[in-house]
Amino acid sequence: MTNPGWNFDNSYARLPESFYTKMNPTPVRSPKLIVLNEPLAQSLGLDAEALRSEDSVAAFAGNRIPEGAEPIAQAYAGHQFGYFNMLGDGRALLLGEQITPRGERVDIQLKGSGPTPYSRRGDGRAAIGPMLREYIISEAMHALGIPTTRSLAVATTGQPIQREVELPGAVLTRTAASHIRVGTFQYAAQWGSAEDLRALADYTMQRHCPGIAHDDDRYLNFLREVIKRQAALIAKWQLVGFIHGVMNTDNMAISGETIDYGPCAFMDAYDPATVFSSIDSQGRYAYGNQPPIGGWNLARFAETLLPLLHDDEEQAIKLAEGALADYASQYSRHWLAGMRAKLGLVGEEEQDQTLIENLLEIMERVGADFTNTFRALTLNKQDDEALFGSAEFAEWEERWKARLGRQQASQAESQQLMRAANPAVIPRNHRVEEALEAANRGDYGAMERLVAVLARPFAYDAAQEQYCALPAGATRPYRTYCGT
Ligand code: AMP
Ligand code: MG
């Protein structure tokens, strides 16, 4: 049996035992590899050809444990839509941490690999559609320059699973800087000992911010670092119109990566109230709510750290509040810088924020497509009559051009800035659905083409144009689903 390059360490399994359950995946009938991320494999130090061997395909389906892996289901808790629950990997297993040729430590996780002690009423399985959906969207996010878990492979199991209808089962192999969540800290704070919580905090710091792991104020600095990363991350989501859809505290990674691609989708027409998830009827996780929800989740995280911040609870709360108070301004700073780039604005003028907000207001009023508006402005190709033909836009454009005229940067430089900030292609909902429908019939061509286009979102080449178009004809509101 040849090793394709697995080089596992299992440091998480050296934490106190309450943090996980050691167990193997449940074997499946007939594993078949349907997609493999070769560039990612290579960066992990894995040989793509060897990963297509029968043994490796068996490993991607959970029928074989790769050399050196010690599979565990991770325990965690979380606030789901505001309500606190015990959760944990109900259909996932961490195989271990691949140490890459560059010395990085990357979690390798199987998702859909069978039930665990944390499955509650779930079957531990996943359907092919949602696993391919995670593959497509997480890889698109990576190409957009947004920190994210990634997708290495999807294998079908040869076993149907029961949802509303019977669906083909599949296992996704995903990579992450780690799978430690706000909910992991909530689990430790709620049910662990003081030592458990400290062990988790020390471990996580060592893994994600080793530079501060020995500071005197390390736990406060850790909190500040996590806040800083979320402020930057959520600003990036807003700037491309990404709607996570289920920002429960168990779906917020301490590493600052986007995690858990369930009901997520990209906004089409600009509207801060946009919600795609079928179960988010209150709009808790609407596009415009993502920044404040990030703050809410971080407050839950800060609460778990209180015993580590200071022996005196009142002092601890003061320290936590001080750190949390910076979140909103950090977020706004990232957002404003990003929006300036989207409009080609160099330097800072006091009126910039108003200028940006005014454009968004017009876009909202006419229902302009978020991505295509910025693409059109970048290309100076004003093709949306409802927006670009309006008197309001003409007035706004005059102010924008005047602002551009006042800056040192040349027109070409400004356009370059816009091209680097405004993706020409995003995973459009109808394109994702079309690819998944074909995949459900065993045809992976549409998905492969889509993945290839999404890997170069800033290329602005002619071949991509068909992926920029909105769906023809009236479409029903797009709906996405949890627990798929
Ligand atoms: P999510 O909505 O994906 O964040 O999942 C919330 C919780 O439900 C996590 O603990 C998951 O592991 C668990 N879960 C989701 N789907 C299943 C399933 N099919 N079987 C068992 N557990 C599941
Ligand atoms: Mg989750």
General description of the model:
There is one protein chain. This protein is α+β, with helices and mostly antiparallel strands. It folds into 3 domains: 8-176, no CATH class; 182-334, no CATH class; 345-484, no CATH class. Helix content is 43%, strand content 14%. The protein contains 16 helices and 13 strands. It has helices at residues 38-43, 48-51, 54-61, 128-143, 182-191, 194-208, 218-240, 290-309, 313-342, 352-366, 370-379, 385-388, 391-405, 411-421, 429-440, 445-454, and strands spanning 8-9, 20-22, 32-36, 72-74, 77-80, 83-86, 92-99, 105-111, 126-127, 150-162, 166-176, 242-243, 265-266. The chain is globular. The relative contact order is 0.11. Magnesium ion (MG) is lined by residues 250-251, 260.
Write the layout of secondary structure elements.
Blueprint: E1 8-9, E2 20-22, E3 32-36, H1 38-43, H2 48-51, H3 54-61, E4 72-74, E5 77-80, E6 83-86, E7 92-99, E8 105-111, E9 126-127, H4 128-143, E10 150-162, E11 166-176, H5 182-191, H6 194-208, H7 218-240, E12 242-243, E13 265-266, H8 290-309, H9 313-342, H10 352-366, H11 370-379, H12 385-388, H13 391-405, H14 411-421, H15 429-440, H16 445-454
Antiparallel strand pairs: 1-7, 2-4, 3-10, 5-6, 7-8, 8-11, 9-11, 10-11, 12-13
Helix pairs in contact: 4-15, 4-16, 5-8, 6-8, 7-8, 7-9, 8-9, 9-14, 10-13, 15-16
The chain binds adenosine monophosphate and magnesium ion (MG).
